[in-house]
């Protein structure tokens, strides 16, 4: 059970090639392919004839042709050719999901009934076209439910323990940082400031800080993705309340989409600011970002494996859970609706 | 549930060595070994003492000896020696299945009750001893129910899509070829002619055709195997109605045996005619035959994986399904009996 | 279901390093680590906060710190620090199991209720400190229930069939050896003598026997381990009734602990006597011991795999089963209690 009538991330535009892309989203196997000029089609990944995955077939003139007996489907899911047969039965079609590409992200609409159309635009990801930043992307498969990834991203106190070699820094400083949590019925915002703190390894590699820094973490959770803005300026150099502040910026996009009830896709981009005097160091930021997300995957999959081992064991809340718990309540309300 | 009181293919004679052969047939693990001069024994693969597979033991004087405590069984399944013990309890025995070797094929009888004896001979495979042909064999394991393999073999319209590089040829010609289907209560025959068609790659490699060919596919489905006769002559050179016609011949034997409800054994031989001027090219025919069956395995296993993903999804019949659907009805009637 | 209120082997002291040791015992995932001077702690392997395995964390001052958010636990299972939070809730704790190290073996107490304390000492393994012997250890994981390993160790008639190349020797001699079986409510003793028999390969490699030997096997089964004393003297040289007899000795310790209902840990040591004239040959004894236990693992896992294939199939008892059947009855009575 997942919240419906909303957009989910299905992948990145650059994943679409001359081959079909097979992926399971919200428990439904789909095939994703370019259809039309800038369009993208997302169909149920099943030929209506003998159930072979359409993703085993080939792209053909904006549609997709089954690799077993050649049935051809257009982007709406209708079968438009059965080789060797004149009449095409009306029921020869598969489900199609509304989909668009915006800011390099493939968004797919999952409604609560067949044929439901989107009632809103998918979110913009402005960092992807902000000339101040370069960005790179990654796709990580998780053998864990997607809300465990939300929990992780909404609670950046773990970075001192899990990511000590990269973006972490002193664990105690993280755990004791003043944190504010705010929310409405669709989103949660968590802001943490670590003033006059020692910059972590990734920051000092990327940016020539003079010494201590004023560091921030601004986490914005939405039902279908998170945007996390982190960074630092030399201590006292600028107000952390200034939205136009300079310094080293890392703007993360985190598309967390259920694959099944027990597995997930994690589509991420990292948009970071290169310092003009050391532009090559930005590669290190991406490498360490990828390493960081791999560290998260390992511990979250271990966590989920253990949750099944200890099914029903109680959990004790601590101070860092406020943001994650609000996000869970929002999803619970939306799923029940 | 499978049709009982019939022979199934358990393997090939050349698979029997000085080691026991373990195989699961119709959901029953069995051990197969030579017993007596030309005989073959097929026993339940379980020592009656502590359930160790007999196939972990050794062959000993026409019987099989358990590798744990040395109990010796003869080809009828009776325990005939318990080392260190004089008396052999009457219940010290395991089930035995009637089995014979004919034309290099091991046939095993599965009755509807213990001890049921065969009421007919197993089928002959005359191509195996026809001096006109050479033949080679293969054993393929399928993670798919056996009737999906029947479907595939009874519908050779798929060869244009799945086997384009070898025996396929033009997909549209295949899909539009005139096809006749006939059947009785135990068999189905599908005949397709593709006159004046372009020979596929395997054919031109094996035989010096002058140009276009008259090509045929004759599929004979039986409850425990299929025999498929395909080939071609130079266009107009001979009547396709002449059973003694020349040209390039490929005679396939296809023993399709359930391993379990969800997996299968596919025992095949290909008997082909080498052209006297280019006898070495026959090796290519076998290589491409093996490649073809591997291509089928990939798509059928994907099909079955997807059928489980979309359990209960309806399927739309098309024109090529006539033969396969009759075979399914025959098996359904026999299974219910 | 396993007998409770008793010690089980959890591992060997030398397995404890500066990293936590994760292991599942009796279906319960635990983390094992040194705590205090000679102490060992065994805790439920689950942080009470978000269920991450504590074994993914680090050892810290005699306790263990979770690798996700830094919660610190002492050896009693109490959480004694939550970074960034002053108050520690009373329920912030995990289960702890009483554990001691004796004669290099880690013993863990599993009671029938939380907090149950041991009412006896764990067993001594005197061979581990007997200057007459050297010993080596091994840990083998079994995909089979632990009582199948008991069956194997209590019935050394199988060594002729399974271990023909090492400790086996003539299979018929083993199967026909006079055997006495005695038992009480907690233990079984099986003694077998093979007088004037040919020594097996391992024995002749380790010890300069003159020819035939008087060979013995003394198996002592206890609820949580077995000790098996085997060896040989030159034929007629000494009475096998003399507990101080010389010759070649192999004293095996066999800690068999359920991992789950269907898998097991097998912790073994072999204490053997090196002959003064050929002390280097003792290495061969250990190599062949390890090979022997690997041969057992293969056949027992095949046995269990087959028992599931043939679920419910009857088993026929033979003469060698007397000891194993008594051990099974003892465990059945204790499990029911």
From TrEMBL, chains A, B, C:
InterPro entries per UniProt: Cholesterol_7-desaturase (IPR050584), Rieske_2Fe-2S (IPR017941), Rieske_2Fe-2S_sf (IPR036922), VanA_C_cat (IPR044043)
Protein name: Rieske 2Fe-2S domain-containing protein
Coiled-coil ranges from the UniProt annotation: none
Domain Rieske: 7-108
Keyword terms: 2Fe-2S, Iron, Iron-sulfur, Metal-binding, Oxidoreductase
Database matches in Pfam families: Rieske, VanA_C
MF (Gene Ontology): 2 iron, 2 sulfur cluster binding; metal ion binding; oxidoreductase activity
UniProt-listed CDD domains: RHO_alpha_C_DMO-like
């Amino acid at each position: 059970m997942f919240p419906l009538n909303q957009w989910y991330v299905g992948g990145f535009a650059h994943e679409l090639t001359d081959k079909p892309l097979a992926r399971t989203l919200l428990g439904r196997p789909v095939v994703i392919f370019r259809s039309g000029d800038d369009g993208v089609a997302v169909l149920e990944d099943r030929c209506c004839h003998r159930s072979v995955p359409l993703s085993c077939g080939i792209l053909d003139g904006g549609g997709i042709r089954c690799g077993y007996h050649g049935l051809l489907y257009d982007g709406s899911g209708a079968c438009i050719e059965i080789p060797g047969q004149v009449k095409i039965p009306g029921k020869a079609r598969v489900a199609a999901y509304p989909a668009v590409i915006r800011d390099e992200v493939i968004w797919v609409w999952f409604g609560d009934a067949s044929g439901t159309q989107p009632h809103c635009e998918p979110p913009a990801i402005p960092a992807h076209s902000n000339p101040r930043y370069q960005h790179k992307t990654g796709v990580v498969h998780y053998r864990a439910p997607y809300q465990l990834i939300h929990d992780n991203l909404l609670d950046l106190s773990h970075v001192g323990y899990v990511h000590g070699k990269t973006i972490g820094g002193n664990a105690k400083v993280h755990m004791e940082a003043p944190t504010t949590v705010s929310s409405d019925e669709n989103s949660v915002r968590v802001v943490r400031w670590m003033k006059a703190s020692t910059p972590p390894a990734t920051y000092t590699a990327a940016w020539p800080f003079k010494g201590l820094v004023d560091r921030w973490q601004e986490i914005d959770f939405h039902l279908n993705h998170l945007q996390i803005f982190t960074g630092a300026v030399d201590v006292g150099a600028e107000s952390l309340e200034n939205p136009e502040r300079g310094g080293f910026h890392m703007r993360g996009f985190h598309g967390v989409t259920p694959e099944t009830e027990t597995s997930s896709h994690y589509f991420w981009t990292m948009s970071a600011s290169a310092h003009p005097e050391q532009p090559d160091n930005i590669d290190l930021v991406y490498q360490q970002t990828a390493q960081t997300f791999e560290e998260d995957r390992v511990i979250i999959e271990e966590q989920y494996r253990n949750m099944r081992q200890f099914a029903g064991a109680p959990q004790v809340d601590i101070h860092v859970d406020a943001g994650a718990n609000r996000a869970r309540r929002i999803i619970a309300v939306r799923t029940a609706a």
